Amino acid sequence: MRIAILAIGRQKGGPEAILVADYLARFDAVGRGLGLGPARLQEIEDKKRVGESRLLIDAIPDGAFAVALDERGKAISSRAFAGLICAKRDEGRRDMVFLVGGADGHTDALRARADRLLGFGPMVWPHMLARAMLAEQLYRAASILSGAPYHRD
Ligand SMILES: C[S@@+](CC[C@H](N)C(=O)[O-])C[C@H]1O[C@@H](n2cnc3c(N)ncnc32)[C@H](O)[C@@H]1O
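# S-adenosylmethionine complex -> structure
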């Protein structure tokens, strides 16, 4: 199952970009044996929130399970997150995508389109940091599913 982070904004270099690239490469290395990956980051740019959310919706591949990252979303444990990815893979989904908004967040239309709203708690995180946190959780999920000792409860 292919994974994509569809994210508003472009980042040229910087610590968050290094973290995203590093964790997605680690995800691919562990996920290869699990039927997971490749994982990619697709950056999308627009200047208005409505336009941004529309571009994110349009970038969702047909049949993909879409998870919108949103501070209003439900927070789940890393093991539950791994379980969600595993369940979508086992359903035979070809794509799972994660939608990260810009400075103004997502529209109601995007939230309605998403199959799941995922929160990292009620605090608002910078969108570039949210990407990096998500990439780490993807790697952690793959490690959990592979039985590697990276994750400790
Ligand atoms: C700066 S935040 C947008 C905040 C905006 N006030 C809103 O209403 O969503 C940019 C993006 O980062 C992600 N993000 C920020 N904090 C988050 C959190 N606590 N949980 C999940 N995603 C978060 C979301 O994808 C959000 O659209």
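# post-check
The pocket of S-adenosylmethionine is lined by residues 69-71, 73, 100-101, 103-106, 119-121, 123-127, 130 (CB under 6 Å).
Strands lie at 2-8, 39-44, 65-74, 95-100, 116-118.
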